Amino acid sequence: MQVDLSTYFDDDDFYTAQNIAMAEWLAQKPQEAWVWVAKDLNYDCAVPVIRWMIDQPDCDLAVAAIFFWTIMPEMDDEDDRYNEEDLPLITSILEKERHPGFASAGFKLPSAYLINSVNEFRASSRGYRFVDLPSALTGPFEVWEGDPPPAYDARRNATLRDLFEGLGTTFKEME
Predict the structure, then answer these.
(1) 64 contact partners, CB below 8 Å, separation of at least 6
(2) Which of 30, 89, 112, 140 has the maximal Cβ count within 10 Å?
(3) pLDDT above 90 for 27
(4) Across the chain, what does the average pLDDT equal?
């Protein structure tokens, strides 16, 4: 399946072909695969495919939450400054959640680290003052226990591993 990511790239993006290849793979997969891919995408190299995923009508809330909470811990606790490079993606996620909202199949998040970020935010007396977070993004979420299905595990799926490596993420094969 051909995927047009041209609106998501800068003219000098080194990872254009790799982002397109990942998007084309994802376009043929169910949202469950997206959840597992979202957990491991190298944010520095995969912003175009991440933005494309968020913009898809069937993008699941779990996928959006993974990206959102992977970015949000970079907040500076002293004065609530955000990393300006992350603002377009944060804004995109917030705007889509407010209207029309993300689909939700009730997927569990594949990382306890992300759950800890959400829980720390929920326990905070002040949260992040710069933004009013939609409740859907603050959970509560459950954590997936165990390994991902083999088809969505880059350590066991050579095709997926190659796609990740093209975007700067490496995995060791499982024995």
Answers:
(1) 54, 93, 96, 97, 102, 137
(2) 89
(3) yes
(4) 82
* CB-CB contact of 3 with 52 (8 Å): yes
Count of residues in the chain: 175
Q: Which residues pair with 60 in a beta bridge?
A: 103
Q: Per-residue confidence at 111, pLDDT binned at 50, 70, 90? A: confident
The three-state DSSP-derived secondary structure of 17-58 is HHHHHHHHHHHCCCHHHHHHHHHHCCHHHHHHHHHHHHHCCC
Instruction: Note the pTM of the prediction, 2 decimals.
Output: 0.84
Residue 54 near residue 96, CB atoms below 8 Å: yes
SS (H, E, C) 97-151: HHCCCCECCCCCECCHHHHHHHHHHHHCCCCCCCCCCCHHHHCCCCECCCCCCHH
